[in-house]
Each structure stands twice: as structure tokens, then as C-alpha cells.
């Protein structure tokens, strides 16, 4: 049966700003769905308030509305586009579903004669209302953990008495586990019961008996209107029940399930999806399995939409869930669609893997001082990485190498700890580093049983790690001169980086690399093809391993490599993926073959049809260098992938690989405070007085010279990490000692802080000669709050002509003086009509996508063409759409950390952003924000 | 504790291609036709499936052995594959219900295997070059010696293998007081076919592959099940005749895999050897009558020719494989027989097609009333 020809114009609802629990995976699914529908000749209108998304680009949809996600916006859009006949709310996470429900309650869909596709309201209601869901499961004979609903404090206490501790308590209708906690004692229980009742929008909490230590699994399903259902992926949680799945290390395919238990689970999942409602689309089901002979299966929850896990499952299997789910929503059946990877077989099939993927979440606890760092039922991570390997061990090492937490992989880098008490504590109370402590525990000989008892992690996983540690002893028997080929080959197959092997043998990384060359131990690339090589595949989605056959053949075309931005974290989020995707598209337009390297499964850049070739690999030197050697590109774009990519510029240059656009020397000049200040002085550009110190003593000395307040920060950091404003000697001493403890040997910058200054920033494109200023933004908060955490107004709302002229002059002078070829962002402080330069970053900034959306021009595309030397600034006909003001709104996830006050300062803390347009400054929105500008400033 | 080194092993294909790896299972040498299975779970069920007799089995999934061996998750009493080729082989296993490791199970069954092979390269090779014979050895790395041995291995085409795996004596299965009596022609039957029928109120008499129609009729069955099994169906002349008589009797008949092929041959259809067969648990099949799709478990290297079925007016094509549009199921129109190329009893694999057993039971009930 072909598609429903009555659907001609679809509204897709996005997920809004990035928050913990709802990240850029929904940009990936939304943009994929939009493209999928447009392929079918359907007009797509899209709403999302997040400007840093690809989905809100003109390349993605026919009409884009950057409006607040509320029913008023929806009604406005429907007024404007009478042709919209359907809404697809399953691509924008819980936010989109909630909005769709709200509109349904208000009768908006009915009034405008709009059908909801991809889900039905009953399914949402049933899956979100835990009591209804539970009753339904019971009627189907699907077991669930003992659970009851409390609508009052008293009811809650009675339930606790009945079940006994530990208990799991969670609020109904919330996102990312907000309000869900594990409790072991009555005191904490009462506190959490109270807060849960408050947090739930319907003031209801569910209390479950905790299934601590049970194994946790997830299945991703697709279903069409003929009720055909397939399982796209099985995912096993390395961390058992008790840790939110978004905070768990996960593995696909499931490693420790027998066919018998897996098939039972599969049957249950299919029955559940069929039963919750009548809809065609995607669905995610979570299960717990008892870790005993019974292998009892218990259903945890079902999400009738595309989820975080579906993005992961899509990347893990190659099966584009969102793309197919969108086609199913408009009436196609699975058997009439092609497998998008092979293009010759059916979309109705279940992907099979001949590799293993490991996902590890990325946390940012350092940004939330005083936060409870223990992992639990509430999600706390801000991003994730995925490692692909031909074995669990290899995938695990590659995932660890992708994390960018200063480790070279799992262990073998001299960063392990050996304090037994600390390790045991960490095993029992998991935080971001438990995986590393499991390694340390095995290494120091803590009994296996103890490790298992404390972590409840399946023995198979622990044994895999143990085997790696045993093998390290084999490596340690040799030096780089004596290591036999098979030992080195096995180490590489296990995923060890050259650096780790070098650490084990006490030699240089380059010596290991040379030894590999001598033995001809080379990375080979394998295809992610959904079918374990049963059929030829057309899609260029590769990962590396060490084996015999290489499936990636380098073409004769001129190539450009774009380095991705790795895991999302505070300070480096979706904006950089937006820029990378545009860099790829621009390079394609210039006639290059494009090669993307990234390891973040949530992104659009790692979609298999973004670049000509995708290498799903760690953005880690060794992997990048091997790809470059294999592909032999004209050059590498590092400007778009944030600090992750940028910090590789030096090594690329050293190895004679061309960095496209602004050279490493210029990037370094801008980062090196001493050199940069000399440049400013030479150009007679004002800057705050500063100095560089290497100890607390030097700092105190310098402070008396510069005068308080002082801005203190380590050099070469991201998003204002460890940046602080101090006002006296005690604070200064304390902070400097802290920095040196965390980052030994790092230089520390002390800037005189311009108290009460106004902050502004400018983004520009420069081709080395001409400069075009994309936009100037003025911050609403006074200086002292990180630019990423500030409300920024484009264009400035009250800077005088004289100040703006200075900003323009300085921007142009500096861009040229830094030999910028591509993008540059400059931050200013304005005090007494003097414009001081705080910093300059010759690279894509967080604000470029914001300006591009506000002015409706493809600035990253332009900048990429300049970087590639294909165009000059004067070749572009800039026609910004200037109307009123655009406000960039920082969005925080403080609600995930109840103990942390919302305090803002020079260190960035926001997880996402939204855009808000106002016609003029009399607008209430602006007046409200402006009046609250000092509210959260901390020192 | 130390890292465990395993001895080297070698795999040689008929076309001279060599892969090297590590020994698993018994130290020794094994030969068979190499075939790949793309399933990610259920190695124990696969290894004990009699249809794999004569096959050197390549698993495409990365890890095997992770959950050890459970006593009751078997499809026959012993390992039926000739040898195993895999990527990562776990000697350590984790499953409270397991009784031993896969390594011990292989040794006990005197089976040879090779791990740490670039199985993906090998799969791609077989995909393009087609099924062929192979030899695995962990006792010699002398390629010339292995080549000589490999030459002695007969081609799967034209090979009758049911006699090697079928029961020698008829036996009963299930509850004697069950409502229906089903005669099973054991061409290499998987236990789960018997379980699926017994669960549906059937009492079974499982006859050896060479049982005659008359011999089976003596037991007075209500219906016939033609089982799966290994080998080339076109050379099974006796069974083809027997099945022809069964179908002519008008009693409800259900054929699975090899049983389906023999049933088709008995109706004058033809079969041929496939390039590299279907082996896995993710094979998409469409039921042409209902338009519903099933994810199926498959294991066959021969197939009933679509054209021969289409040309026969007594045959209705009921099921189609969605990847390559091959024939997956038929019904004999003027008789009470149907059959499928795939495995509704799955094990390993999805349970989507169990309804076929219910359909069979309905046929029996209708026939009896």
C-alpha cells in the first residue's frame, strides 16, 4: 500500500533548547524526518526555538519557525499555513509530545483539521500515566516491578511500609528522570516523596520496589500501519538497574542474552507496542532481567516516539530509524521500502551486527559545584560518545579514547588510582569514573567477587576487562625493540592506542607507531552495513579495526577532512555540529569529496548521508592521522569542530598536513596571551591589564600590581573551565592552588577585571584581506558572566555609534592582523566608552549559528568556502534580513542538580540556547530579562 | 592469573584462500561446506541443528560463547556442525543457568574450530564466490597437506545427508492422550518442531527418514509433519515418493525447510542450489495472503524454483522472501498440504511464524470433523 496521498503538508515539532535528558539527538531525528518527508514531495514546516540546529535551516525544511514551543506559536503557524494537514510530534522528544498533547487538549488540531501522525494520543497517555500503563501490562500478562501510585504524602508512606526498602520513587509525566530517586531509608524517602509530588505536573508519584542489580536492556522497534513490527537493535546496559539508561554505559548488540531470553523479550516488546495504541512509527522498550537462573523479564517502560536510544541505535546499526519512521507515519509499510544502506534489500528486516558498539556518557559535574555526583535514576550526563570495534574490548577502548577527559583510553596511561578505599567507595557509589575504577580495582587485585558484589556488573563484562589487564602484563614483558608482531597486533586489536602501548613499554608513542609501520600493522576500515556483509552495501559509513581486509578505498578525487567536535559538553555543544555539517556541505559544493570524522552518535554530522565518507572514529590523534594517511586529503578543516578539533591543529601542522583557512600559527597567536597582547599593543587596541603566573606566590605578587577584582583562569581551556573572579588575596591564593592541583604545570592567566563593564561580541568572516562583520551582539548581563551563559541581543540595544565604530574597527584590524581565513569571534568589554578586547578566537563560535538564523544567511557555508580558498569575502552578496532584535537565551539544566544554586560567573554552565525575536525594545520580554540582569551573578 | 594463549589454527577454502586464527575446541582437523549465519544470538541452538550437518559454520557476529551452554537449549543431542569459524570466542561465560563453557562443549563433542579470523572478509568472500568446501586445522599448518585432504571432501550438491542425522528407530514424543496424532518424517528434525507440536496437543511418532508411507499409516496418524534436515533434496528419491503418497492421502501435511523442498519435488516442482544460501534469524518474509510480514529464522542452501511453482496450477505461492524475492512457502491447492522454506519453530530466532503451527492444527481439526 503506498503512502497516504491526502497528506501534503506536515508540521514537525522540534525539541527546543538542549537540556540534560534531551540533547541534539532530536536535531538528528528531526532533520532526518524532514528530509524523508520532502523526498516524498510533502511540504514540511518546522518549529523549534533552538537556533543551533540543522533542522531549523532552510536546507532542511520548507518553512522554519524559530518560535517558542507553545500552543500560541502552533496556532500562529497553522493560521499562516492553512495547508498543513498533519503534525508529526514524535521527532522532538518529550517536549514535542507534551506540546502536541497540550494542543490536543485545547482542541487546536481539531480546529485546524490537522491529523496527528506517527503516534496516537492514547499511546502517549497510556505510556506516561504509569498506573494506566501498569494496568494494561497486567492485563497482557507482562510482569512489572511491584509499584503503586501516591497522590498524597500519606499514601506514599503507606506504600513504603508495604514494599520495604530500597525503593524507587519517581514523578509522573517528567523528562529524563526528573524527580526519580532510589531510596534506602525512610528519612530520605519522605524528603523525596515531597519533592516528587511537587515536581510532577499532575502531582503524582510512582513508587516501585527497586530491582537493584537486575540486568537492563532496551529494544528499538519500528511498526507500520499493517502492524508489521521489527526490532532494529538490542542494547545491553553495562551498568545494571539503578542507573538511568542515559547515564549508563551501553553495549550493542546485547552481549549476555541467550536466544531464548532474547526472543521472550522481543515477543513482549512487540506485544506491548501493538497494545498501547494504533500508530505507525518508532518505539523504545526497556526491560530488566533477573541475574539468576530464572532470567525473569520485567517491563520497565515504553516510549512511543523516537528517543535518545533510537539515535544511538541508528548509528549503531546503520538503520536510519527517524527517516523510516517518518515514511511509516505517512502510510508506507516496511515491506515496500528499501533498506537505505544496501538499497537492494527490504526495509522490513532486523539489522545484524558483526561488530560491537559501546556508548559512554559524558558528564560535566565540574560545572555544578556542590552537585551530587553519584549516578542514579535521574540523568546527569550532558553528552555521549560511541566506540565501534570488532570486539567489545576494542569498542570499549575506542569509546574511552573518544571521551576527551584527558585519558588515552581505559587505563595504561598512568592516570589510574591505587587508593583502595577510594576505589571501593567508587564501585559502590558510581560516578562518571566508575569504569576506570573497575579497571584500577582489577589491576590492584581486589577480588573479582568484591567488584561484582559492589557493582553488580555482569561477570562477562568484568572478565573482558580482566583479560585486557592480563594482556597488559604480556606487553610489559617487552620493550619496543623486542615486542613480537603478534603481541603488538593483539594489543591493537584490543583497541589499545599507541600511546597506551608506549606507556606500558616505557617508550615514545612515535616509537610504537614506527614499530607498527615496520611490522605492517595497519588500521583497516570496515563498513557499517546493517547486514553483517550478507549483501553489498552502498553507504560509506566506516570504522577502523586491525584485521586483514580494508573495505575503504580512497578515490582519486580531491578530498577535505572535517574534524567533528566529539561528545557534547557544556561549552561545546550542538552549535559546533551545526558548523561541521555546513562545512561538509560547502566543501561538497566546491567540488571536494568530503570526509567526516566524529564519534558523537547524537549528531547530524555522523548521519551516513551528510558527508561523502563518514569515519565513525574517536577525534583522537592516532585515529585521525591514520585516516588522513589513508585518504590523503588536500587539507583538514579544524575551525568548525570547536576546541576538540582546534587543539589538533598544532600536530597536524607539525606532520605537514594542511589546515584549511586560518593557520595554526594564527590560532596559536590568538590563544597565547603574551603574544596576543603584544599584537594588541602594537595595533593600539586597548585590553585589560594582565599577567601570567605559574604559582600562587607569583599570583599574589602580580595581583598587587594589577589590582582587584581579578579574573583568574588556566590558559588553553574550554568554556571558561576553572575561570573565576576573585576580589582578595585569600580567594586568589585558594583558586590558584586549586587550578594547579587539577592541572599541574598549567600556566595561569590573571586579568584585571573591568568591573561594571558591558560585554559585547562580534563574529566576522575574513579572507586574509577583507573582513565582513556578520553581527555584533550586546550582552544583557554585566561583564563577569560567561558569554555562553548571557542573554545576547543582536544587534546591540544601547551601544553608541562611537562604541560600535570602535568594535567594527577593532574586529577588522584584528581579523586581518591574525591572518584569519575563515571565521573569527571577538569578545569585548566596554567601559566609559572605551572598547577593550578580552579575547579573540579565529574559529566558528557558539554564536555564528544564532546570527545565521537571525539574519537568514548561510554564514558557515560562506566561511567554509573562504577557508577552502574557493571564494573571497567580496564574492558574496550579503543581504542580512534585519528586523527588530534577536535575543539569544541561555538555557540551564540546574533542575537536575537540586543541591546546586543557579549561580553564574565566568565559567559556562548553560547546556543549550533558544532564540527569541522581538520587534523593538519596548517589548515585555526584553524588559523582563533586562530587569533581572544582575540576579544570578556570583563572584 | 595470566593471559591465556591459544594455539594457532588455519582455515583453507577450496579456492585456495587461507585465513589464520586461533584454535578453539578440540585440537584437530575438520572439513565441510562453509556457510555463514548472521544471527547474533542462539549459537547453541544453531550448532545442534541437524540441518547444519556437513557445514563448516561461520558466525558473523563478533562474540560467541558469552553465555556458555545451558543443558536444555539444544535442537539435537550433539553438535551437528562440522567445525566453527568465528571472531571472538569466549571461554569465560556468564549465565547462572549455564552448565559449562562453549569450549568444554566443543571438546566433549570432539569439534574443531578457529577464532580470531577476519570473519567479515571471509563473509564477503563467500558472498561473492559462493558456497564452497573448507578445511580447518589446529594440528597442522601445512597448506599442501590440507589441500590434499580438502580435495577428498565431496560437494554438497547431489549429497544426501538426512540418513546421517535422522533417528534410526521410530520414537514417540509428547503426551499419548493428546488430541492429535502426528507422524513426523525425520529428515534431521529440530527438537523445537516436536515441542511446538506437542504444546499444541499433539502426540508424535517420529519416523526415520526412510520410513515408508505404509509403515507410517499403520500408526494411523491424523496428519504428517515433514521435517527440516541437511543436504540436497533433489537426490532424495525415496522420500519424494513417500511424501507424494502422504499428500495423495489427503491428510493434513506440513513441511518445513528440507521437508518443504521434498514436498515441492513430490508435486513436480524443481529445486536448485543457491549462491550462498540463507542462514540467519533476520530474514524478511511476506505472507502473500495476509500482506503481513514475518521476521524468520532460515537455514537453507537449496531453494524451490519460483518459476516451477508458478507454472504448476495446483500450487499456490503463499510466502515470499523480501530480500531476493525467492520462494518461501507454498500450498498444494487440491490437497491438504502446505510448507515453508523457513523455520516457524525458530530456535534460534524470532517467534513471528508460530502461527503456521496453529494453522496446521486447524487443518487437522477441520480434517477430522
Give a written overview of the molecule.
The complex is a heterodimer of chains A (939) and B (369). With 939 residues, chain A is an alpha+beta fold. Chain A has seven domains: 9-117, Rossmann fold (3-Layer(aba) Sandwich), CATH 3.40.50.20; 146-209, ATP-grasp fold, A domain (Dna Ligase, domain 1, 2-Layer Sandwich), CATH 3.30.1490; 220-351, 2-Layer Sandwich (D-amino Acid Aminotransferase, Chain A, domain 1); 359-521, Orthogonal Bundle (Carbamoyl Phosphate Synthetase, Chain A, domain 4); 525-660, Rossmann fold, CATH 3.40.50; 689-752, 2-Layer Sandwich (Dna Ligase, domain 1), CATH 3.30.1490.20; 758-931, ATP-grasp fold, B domain (D-amino Acid Aminotransferase, Chain A, domain 1, 2-Layer Sandwich), CATH 3.30.470.20. In chain A, the strands form six sheets. Chain A has a seven-stranded antiparallel β-sheet with strand order 14-13-10-11-12-15-16, sandwiched between helices. Chain A has a seven-stranded antiparallel β-sheet with strand order 31-30-27-28-29-32-33, sandwiched between helices. In chain A, β30 and β31 form a beta hairpin. In chain A, α14 packs across α16 (459-476), α18 (498-505) packs across α19 and α26 crosses α27 (729-742). Chain A is globular. Chain A starts with 8 loop residues before the first strand and ends in an 8-residue tail after the last helix. The mean pLDDT of chain A is 93. Chain B has 369 residues and is an alpha/beta fold. Chain B folds into two domains: 8-151, Carbamoyl-phosphate synthase small subunit, N-terminal domain (Glucose Oxidase, domain 1, 3-Layer(bba) Sandwich); 162-368, Rossmann fold (3-Layer(aba) Sandwich). Chain B has eleven helices and 19 strands. A ten-stranded mixed β-sheet of chain B has the order 10-12-11-13-14-19-18-17-15-16, sandwiched between helices. A seven-stranded mixed beta barrel of chain B has the order 1-2-8-6-4-3-9. In chain B, α8 crosses α9. Chains A and B meet through β11, α9 and α16 of A and α3 and β15 of B.
Amino acid at each position: 500500500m503506498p503512502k497516504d496521498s491526502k497528506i501534503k503538508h506536515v508540521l514537525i515539532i522540534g525539541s527546543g533548547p538542549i537540556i540534560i535528558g534531551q540533547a541534539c539527538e532530536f536535531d538528528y531525528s528531526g532533520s532526518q524526518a524532514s528530509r524523508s518527508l520532502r523526498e516524498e514531495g510533502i511540504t514540511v514546516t518546522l518549529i523549534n526555538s533552538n537556533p543551533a540546529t540543522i533542522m531549523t535551516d532552510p536546507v532542511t525544511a520548507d518553512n522554519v519557525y524559530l518560535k517558542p514551543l507553545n500552543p500560541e506559536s502552533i496556532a500562529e503557524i497553522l493560521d499562516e499555513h492553512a495547508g498543513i494537514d498533519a503534525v508529526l510530534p514524535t521527532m522532538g522528544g518529550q517536549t514535542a509530545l507534551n506540546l502536541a498533547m497540550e494542543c490536543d487538549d485545547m482542541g487546536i488540531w481539531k480546529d485546524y483539521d490537522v491529523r496527528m501522525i506517527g503516534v496516537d494520543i492514547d499511546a502517549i497517555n497510556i505510556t506516561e500515566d504509569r498506573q494506566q500503563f501498569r494496568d494494561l501490562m497486567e492485563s497482557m500478562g507482562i510482569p512489572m516491578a511491584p509499584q503503586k501510585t501516591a497522590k498524597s504524602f500519606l499514601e506514599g508512606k503507606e506504600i513504603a511500609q508495604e514494599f520495604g526498602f530500597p525503593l524507587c520513587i519517581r514523578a509522573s509525566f517528567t523528562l529524563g528522570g526528573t524527580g526519580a530517586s532510589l531510596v534506602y531509608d525512610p528519612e530520605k524517602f519522605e524528603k523525596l516523596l515531597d519533592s516528587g509530588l511537587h515536581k510532577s505536573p499532575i502531582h503524582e508519584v510512582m513508587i516501585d520496589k527497586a530491582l537493584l542489580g537486575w540486568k537492563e536492556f532496551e529494544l528499538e522497534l519500528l511498526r507500520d500501519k499493517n502492524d508489521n513490527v521489527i526490532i532494529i537493535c538490542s542494547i545491553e546496559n553495562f551498568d545494571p538497574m539503578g542507573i538511568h539508561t542515559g547515564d549508563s554505559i551501553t553495549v550493542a548488540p546485547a552481549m549476555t542474552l541467550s536466544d531464548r531470553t532474547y526472543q521472550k523479550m522481543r515477543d513482549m516488546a512487540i506485544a506491548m507496542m501493538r497494545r498501547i495504541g494504533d500508530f505507525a512509527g518508532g518505539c523504545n522498550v526497556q526491560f530488566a532481567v533477573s541475574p539468576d537462573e530464572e532470567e525473569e523479564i520485567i517491563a520497565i517502560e515504553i516510549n512511543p516516539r523516537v528517543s535518545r536510544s533510537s539515535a544511538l541505535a541508528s548509528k549503531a546499526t546503520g538503520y536510519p530509524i527517524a527517516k523510516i519512521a517518518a515514511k511509516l507515519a505517512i502510510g508506507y509499510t516496511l515491506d515496500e521500502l528499501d533498506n537505505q544502506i544496501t538499497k537492494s534489500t527490504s526495509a522490513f528486516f532486523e539489522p545484524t551486527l558483526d561488530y560491537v558498539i559501546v556508548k559512554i556518557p559524558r558528564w560535566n559535574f565540574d560545572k555544578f559545584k556542590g552537585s551530587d555526583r553519584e549516578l542514579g535514576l535521574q540523568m546527569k550526563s550532558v553528552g555521549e560518545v560511541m566506540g565501534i570495534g570488532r570486539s567489545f574490548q576494542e569498542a570499549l577502548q575506542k569509546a574511552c579514547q573518544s571521551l576527551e577527559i584527558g585519558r588515552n583510553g581505559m587505563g595504561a596511561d598512568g592516570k589510574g588510582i591505587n587508593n583502595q578505599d577510594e576505589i571501593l567507595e567508587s564501585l559502590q557509589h558510581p560516578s562518571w569514573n566508575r569504569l576506570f575504577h573497575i579497571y584500577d580495582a582489577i589491576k590492584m587485585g581486589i577480588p573479582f567477587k568484591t567488584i561484582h558484589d559492589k557493582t553488580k556488573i555482569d561477570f562477562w563484562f568484568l572478565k573482558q576487562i580482566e583479560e585486557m589487564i592480563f594482556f597488559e602484563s604480556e606487553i610489559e614483558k617487552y620493550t619496543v625493540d623486542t615486542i613480537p608482531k603478534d603481541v603488538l597486533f593483539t594489543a591493537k586489536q584490543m583497541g589499545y592506542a599507541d600511546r597506551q602501548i608506549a606507556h606500558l613499554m616505557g617508550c615514545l608513542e612515535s616509537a610504537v607507531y614506527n614499530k607498527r609501520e615496520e611490522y605492517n600493522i595497519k588500521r583497516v576500515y570496515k563498513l557499517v552495513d546493517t547486514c553483517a556483509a550478507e549483501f553489498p552495501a552502498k553507504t560509506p559509513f566506516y570504522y577502523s579495526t586491525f584485521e586483514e581486509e580494508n573495505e575503504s578505498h580512497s578515490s582519486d578525487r580531491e578530498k577535505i577532512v572535517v574534524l567533528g567536535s566529539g561528545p557534547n559538553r557544556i561549552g561545546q555543544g550542538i552549535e559546533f555540529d551545526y558548523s561541521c555539517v555546513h562545512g561538509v556541505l560547502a566543501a561538497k559544493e566546491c567540488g571536494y569529496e568530503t570526509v567526516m570524522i566524529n564519534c558523537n552518535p547524537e549528531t547530524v554530522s555522523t548521519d551516513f548521508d551528510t558527508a561523502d565518507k563518514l569515519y565513525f572514529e574517536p577525534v583522537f590523534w592516532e585515529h585521525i592521522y591514520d585516516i588522513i594517511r589513508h585518504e590523503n586529503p588536500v587539507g583538514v578543516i579544524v575551525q568548525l569542530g570547536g576546541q576538540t578539533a582546534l587543539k589538533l591543529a598544532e600536530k597536524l601542522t607539525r606532520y605537514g598536513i594542511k589546515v584549511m583557512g586560518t593557520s595554526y600559527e594564527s590560532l596559536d597567536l590568538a590563544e597565547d596571551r603574551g603574544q596576543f597582547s603584544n599584537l594588541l599593543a602594537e595595533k593600539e587596541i586597548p585590553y585589560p591589564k594582565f599577567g601570567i603566573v605559574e604559582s600562587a606566590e607569583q599570583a599574589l605578587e602580580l595581583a598587587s600590581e594589577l589590582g582587584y577584582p581579578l579574573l583568574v583562569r588556566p590558559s588553553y581551556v574550554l568554556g571558561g573551565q576553572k575561570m573565576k573572579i576573585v576580589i582578595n588575596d585569600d580567594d586568589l591564593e585558594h583558586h590558584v592552588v586549586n587550578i594547579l592541583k587539577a592541572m599541574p604545570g598549567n600556566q595561569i592567566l590573571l586579568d584585571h577585571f573591568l568591573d561594571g563593564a558591558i560585554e559585547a561580541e562580534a563574529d566576522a568572516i575574513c579572507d586574509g584581506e577583507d573582513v565582513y562583520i556578520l553581527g555584533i551582539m550586546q550582552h544583557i548581563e554585566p561583564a563577569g558572566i560567561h558569554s555562553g551563559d548571557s542573554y545576547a541581543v543582536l544587534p546591540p540595544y544601547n551601544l553608541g555609534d562611537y562604541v560600535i565604530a570602535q568594535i567594527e574597527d577593532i574586529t577588522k584590524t584584528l581579523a586581518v592582523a591574525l591572518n584569519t581565513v575563515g571565521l573569527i569571534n571577538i569578545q569585548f568589554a566596554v567601559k566609559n566608552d572605551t572598547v577593550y578586547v578580552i579575547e579573540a578566537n579565529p574559529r566558528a563560535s557558539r554564536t555564528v549559528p544564532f546570527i545565521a538564523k537571525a539574519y537568514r544567511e548561510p554564514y558557515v557555508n560562506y566561511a567554509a568556502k573562504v577557508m577552502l580558498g574557493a571564494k573571497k569575502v567580496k564574492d558574496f552578496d550579503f543581504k542580512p534580513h534585519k528586523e527588530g532584535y534577536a535575543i539569544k537565551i541561555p538555557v540551564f539544566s540546574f533542575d537536575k542538580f537540586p543541591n546546586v544554586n543557579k549561580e553564574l560567573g565566568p565559567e559556562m554552565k548553560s547546556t543549550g540556547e533558544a532564540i527569541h525575536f522581538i520587534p523593538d525594545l519596548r517589548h515585555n520580554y526584553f524588559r523582563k530579562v533586562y530587569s533581572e540582569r544582575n540576579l544570578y551573578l556570583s563572584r | 592469573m595470566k593471559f591465556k594463549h591459544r594455539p594457532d589454527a588455519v582455515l583453507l577454502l577450496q579456492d585456495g584462500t587461507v585465513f589464520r586464527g586461533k584454535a578453539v575446541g578440540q585440537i584437530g582437523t575438520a572439513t565441510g561446506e562453509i556457510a555463514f549465519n548472521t544471527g547474533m544470538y542462539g549459537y547453541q541452538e544453531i550448532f545442534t541443528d541437524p540441518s547444519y550437518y556437513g557445514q563448516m559454520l561461520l558466525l558473523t557476529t563478533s562474540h560467541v560463547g558469552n553465555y556458555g551452554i545451558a543443558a536444555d537449549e539444544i535442537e539435537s543431542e550433539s553438535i551437528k556442525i562440522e567445525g566453527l569459524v568465528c571472531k571472538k570466542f569466549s571461554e569465560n561465560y556468564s549465565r547462572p543457568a549455564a552448565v559449562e563453557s562453549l569450549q568444554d562443549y566443543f571438546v566433549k563433542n570432539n569439534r574443531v574450530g578457529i577464532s580470531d579470523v577476519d570473519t567479515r572478509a571471509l563473509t564477503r568472500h563467500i558472498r561473492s564466490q559462493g558456497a564452497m568446501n573448507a578445511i580447518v586445522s589446529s594440528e597442522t599448518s601445512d597448506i599442501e597437506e590440507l589441500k590434499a585432504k580438502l580435495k577428498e571432501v565431496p560437494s554438497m550438491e547431489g549429497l544426501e545427508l538426512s540418513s546421517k542425522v535422522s533417528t534410526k528407530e521410530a520414537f514417540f514424543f509428547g503426551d499419548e492422550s493428546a488430541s492429535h496424532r502426528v507422524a513426523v518424517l525425520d529428515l534431521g528434525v529440530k527438537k523445537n518442531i516436536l515441542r511446538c507440536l506437542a504444546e499444541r496437543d499433539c502426540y508424535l511418532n517420529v519416523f526415520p527418514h526412510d520410513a515408508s508411507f505404509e509403515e507410517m499409516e499403520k500408526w494411523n496418524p491424523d496428519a504428517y509433519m515433514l521435517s527440516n534436515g541437511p543436504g540436497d533434496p533433489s537426490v532424495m528419491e525415496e522420500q519424494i515418493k513417500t511424501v507424494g503418497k502422504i499428500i495423495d492421502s489427503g491428510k493434513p501435511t506440513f513441511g518445513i525447510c528440507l521437508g518443504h523442498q521434498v514436498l515441492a519435488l513430490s508435486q513436480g516442482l524443481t529445486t536448485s542450489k543457491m549462491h550462498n544460501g540463507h542462514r540467519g534469524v533476520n530474514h524478511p518474509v511476506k505472507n502473500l495472503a495476509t500482506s503481513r510480514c514475518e521476521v524468520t529464522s532460515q537455514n537453507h542452501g537449496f531453494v524451490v524454483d519460483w518459476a516451477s511453482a508458478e507454472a504448476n496450477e495446483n500450487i499456490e505461492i503463499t510466502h515470499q522472501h523480501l530480500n531476493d524475492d525467492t520462494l518461501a512457502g507454498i500450498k498444494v491447492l487440491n490437497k491438504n498440504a502446505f510448507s515453508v522454506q523457513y523455520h516457524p519453530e525458530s530456535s534460534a530466532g524470532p517467534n513471528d511464524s508460530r502461527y503456521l503451527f496453529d494453522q496446521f492444527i486447524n487443518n487437522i481439526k477441520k480434517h477430522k470433523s
